[in-house]
Amino acid sequence: MSEFNAFSLLGSIIDRLSLKGYKEPTPIQKECIPILINGNDLLGIAQTGTGKTAAFSLPIINNFARNKIDISAKSTRSLILTPTRELASQIMQNIDDYAEGLALNTKVVYGGVGRQGQVDAIAQGLDILVATPGRLLDLIETGDIHFKALEVFVLDEADTMLDMGFFKDVQNIIAKLPKKRQTLLFSATMPKEIEILAQDILTAPTKVKITPETVTADLVNQNVYHLEKSDKMPLLLNILQTPDYEKVLIFCKTKYGADIIVNELKKASITADSLHSGKTQAVRETVLQHFKEANLRVLVATDVAARGIDVDNITLVINYNLPEDPRNYIHRIGRTARAGKSGMAISFAVENDIRQLTNIENSIGQVIPVVTEQPFHKEFSKASIQVKKLGKNQGKKKVNKTNKNIRSKSLKKSRKK
Q1: Domain boundary residue among 176, 211, 246?
Q2: How far apart are CA 157 and CA 186, in angstroms?
Q3: In this structure, is the dihedral angle defined by the CA atoms of residues 24, 26, 31 and 34, taken in order, positive or negative?
Q4: Family per UniProt (predicted)?
Q5: Domain range enclosing 268
């Protein structure tokens, strides 16, 4: 018997979960599902890969299927707001899988595609709407949707919304929602802005915190390779000679850089494609599907495009460029440590990356081992190593002291003049 039976979910939902291979709830599902079925507000601290989508969608599906109503035109009973098109699509795909046979009206809306089909679907009235902020605001402004019938609001990846500059849009959308509703807020981290927002929109919420960021880091076998910038591609090709790396996700800084890497990989007869904002939504979905189905061995992505990548059995993550924000490092390597599984991550670091590497190590609370037994190993200067040893805060103090001395010398010179 499935452990999901303990939640009193509809039999058809249990059957769908069994078909998808869900044997037992993840920690966040165990915590959240009973709370949400009872209609309480919830503040969830959890990153992607913890089973979060099922945690919030199963109660919504179950409650709506048990209590069907006539939905008025241009309205929706629930709104799930998420930052990226890829994540919105994947949430919708999972919801449709869980709700098969329950006759619920669902729709996903995002930019980059025609809006008329979205308008027509909303006009019929929806049980569940998954949306990204930009397109939803557009539909609100043109009067193609209202929220008079809204019962449940889910804000997913709240910290990503903040990082991507959507926070004002999110606040504008929330202002349009009815005050009386069930509200769920999920975020991997809790910066001050998110804490304030949570206080404003949640009513007596239950707080659930699952899998701190350091736990994901602990699940991944991490290494860093010191090298010259010109040796990155030769090293990448050398690593990919290992046949065990069957499904590889590479992160780079720019979409231009992603396309260059793909072209070089193709020259080496390695099946690869890129995922970034310079491609249309249809193309991005096709690329992601090919990667899921193992028709591509390598996917090269930028941070923004990679939000929401939910692909099983990624054997290796490579940071071709280190992320500037340490939090993105956790999101990146977590692609290969899904739902408590272990994984492997390799980072390339040139000498100028030492400061970024130190910040990442401080963030995850561990030193990433350096692999010296590799053909392109580069010994960094003593000055760089000293910066790494100083650590984030001490390094700042040293820089500030140096700047202070420079300003003092400049001031003395100006006085002499």
Answers
A1: 211
A2: 6
A3: negative
A4: Belongs to the DEAD box helicase family.
A5: 214-380
Indicate which CATH number applies to the domain containing 86.
Answer: 3.40.50.300
Whether the CB-CB separation of 316 and 291 falls below 8 Å is answered with no
3-state helix, strand, coil split of the chain in percent (to 5) is 50, 15, 35
CB 152 within 8 A of CB 79: yes
| Interatomic CA distance for residues 414 and 417, integer angstroms | 5
Report residue 368 as tokens. Answer: 């990433």
Phi, psi of 78 (to 5 degrees): -145, 150
C-alpha distances (whole Å) from 186 to each of 32, 48, 90, 180, 330 are 11, 10, 16, 19, 17
**Total domain count for the chain?**
2
In a domain, 414, yes or no: no
**Residues 198, 129 within the same domain:** yes
Angle of helix 85-98 versus helix 11-19 axis, rounded to 10: 120
Q: H-helix or E-strand containing 116?
A: helix 116-123
pTM: 0.67
**Strands, sheet with 206-209, edge to edge from the N-terminal-most edge strand:** 106-109, 126-131, 76-81, 152-155, 182-187, 42-45, 206-209
- In this prediction, residues 379-401 reach a mean pLDDT of 56
Answer yes or no: is 94 within a domain: yes
Cβ atoms within 10 Å, residue 333: 26
User: Does residue 171 sit in the same domain as residue 61?
Assistant: yes
Place of tokens 């966040």: 28
| Residue 163 shares a structural domain with residue 304 | no
Query: Do residues 72 and 170 both lie within one domain?
Result: yes
Domain shared by 182 and 310, yes or no: no
Query: Does 31 map to a domain?
Result: yes
Q: Are residues 151 and 29 in the same domain?
A: yes
**Alpha-carbon distance 81 to 173, whole Å?**
9
Tell me the three state secondary structure of residue 250: strand
**Same domain for 352 and 219:** yes
17-56 pLDDT tens trace? 988 888 889 889 999 999 999 999 999 988 766 788 999 9
- Which residue, chain included where needed, has tokens 């494609």? 273
pLDDT for 414 beyond 60: no
Could you tell me if 187 and 270 lie in one domain? Answer: no
Q: Is residue 390 part of a domain?
A: no
- Asked if 164 and 144 count as a contact pair (C-beta separation under 8 A), the reply is no
